[in-house]
Amino acid sequence: RLHLVTWNVGTASPPPDVTSLLQLNSLGPTMDMYVIGLQEVNSRITNFLSDLAFDDPWSIFFMAVLSPLGYIKLSSVRMQGLLLLVFAKHVHLPFIRDIHTHYTRTGLYGYWGNKGGVTVRMSLYGHTICFLNCHLPAHMENTEQRLDDFEKILEMQFEGENIPSTLDHDVLFWFGDLNFRIADYGIHFVRESINNKRYNLLWEKDQLNMAKKKEAFLQDFIEGPLQFKPTYKFDLYSDVYDTSEKKRKPAWTDRILWRVKNLCQNASKESEFSEEEQTISVTLNNYISHMSYGISDHKPVTGTFGLELKPLLLDPLVTLNPEGEWSAEHDVLISYSAVPEFPSSAWDWIGLFKVSFRHVNDYVTYAWVEDDEISSTKDSKQVYMSAAEIPDMGGEFLLAYYSNNLQSIVGISQPFRIQPNRTLIDKDLTQEENSWMQKPDNLESHDEF
Fold first, then answer.
1. In 136-180, where do the E strands start and end?
2. What are the tens digits of pLDDT across the range 231-247?
3. Burial letters for 70-85: b for 16+ Cβ neighbours within 10 Å, e otherwise?
4. Yes or no: is domain 318-431 CATH 3.80.30.20?
């Protein structure tokens, strides 16, 4: 289950609550992945420079919401105001590999990153998936420019061997502030149609729908029905369309589309494609806007998808476990085994993480798999961690093996408990008691008073 968000946040700070945006209260199974594409994230020069060194406020915000629920930030890419975040549940991490990011500037003839696309691609259970968040040129008259820019973004290539081009991925999700408008009709007709919920009257004049009928490179993209109000342009903190002097005509600027490669290949063949041959399918379960969010002149749009995969990977590359009972009072051991074809490296490491860790660098401590190895057999190896590195207070933790060659976590343990360091805790309690016993005498007269 994949939940995808697109939102032009208009340089605003994160809202107090995103429960409904992320469908956190929805009944039924929880999401396996969250993909969040934002546009117009605040990118003032001072912010941009600090964002290069630290996570920006939106990334920190979504990590704070999702990490306690068992999701880690798998990847992120930022280009000025464009931000793309991908979160996944712990259980899927060993089966998500070959993660790469890319960005393409199209503003100012390709020199400026206020418009363009940011992309994250990966292999998910052996299938190639690509997420593309775009911010295309604005204004009614720039349809051709939007199409040209999107074609340019599609042509960009990932760096690295054996990485398919954007359109060669098994599934490509394309979303963002695509800025397509409603052509021909006047503002009064558009608003009247919206007020009467007769959205279908506007669909045929939606510039993206019109372009999909003409442009070959768009025809394989699928979109759910636009059964929600156009998401642009609103007065802030309201559900009232633009009352400023410009009175912008409402439009479905914020969209989510997808493309399944084997369906495209099938369409070009005469024979029917049997269900057995289809190894991946995408189902749209929900395509809605969220009117309650008013921090920007756009309303966020979400798509909830079911991805049905025939797993091409069934076993993790590395299996690892804590040896025996772990305590902060003594050195501890980790045992792990790797499949024969695993491309290990001297730079691989095993991290100790709190259960609610936010991303791969959020480890408590780590051990190098080669430098800290203490035994090795054909079937398994052992690595030690020093007691000095283990948190004294103990708690719930897990272990994850990070592959330097694959730049990702390739094995993760079940959560386990570390017992606290009783010696230190008892010592602290004794010190507290002693300090209490040695309170100044003048406190006694104060008590009598």
1. 171-177
2. 999 999 999 999 999 88
3. bbbbbbbbbbbbbbbb
4. no
